[in-house]
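Contributing new records

If you add data, match the layout below exactly. Sequence lines come first and carry their own label; structure lines follow with theirs. Keep one chain per record. Anything else will be rejected by the validation script.
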Amino acid sequence: MKKLPDLSKDPLGKPDPWAKFRGLTWWQLVLSVAPILLVPLGGVIGGTIGGAGLFVNLALARKPFGTPVKVLAMLGVTLGAYLGYVIVAGVIYILVKG
C-alpha cells in the first residue's frame, strides 16, 4: 500500500497553516469560508461563531458524502452560524438594554 505524504508540514518540518484548505474545490472553499464573514458583523462573538462554522465546514468538505449532500450540509452550517449569531446578539442586546 502506498503511503500518502503528510501535507500538514512543509519540507522544513514546520506546520502548514493552509493544509486544511489544500485539495478542496472552489465551491468547497467558498462554502467553508462563508461563516467567517461574521467577523466584520459581530466582532468577537461573530468571529467565534464564524470560526466554529468554518472548521465544521472544512470537516464536512473532507467527508465522503455526495456533492449535493455536502452542499446542503455546508449551507446548513453557514445558515446556522448566522442564525446563531443573531440569536446570541439579540439575547445580549436584551440583557444590556433591559
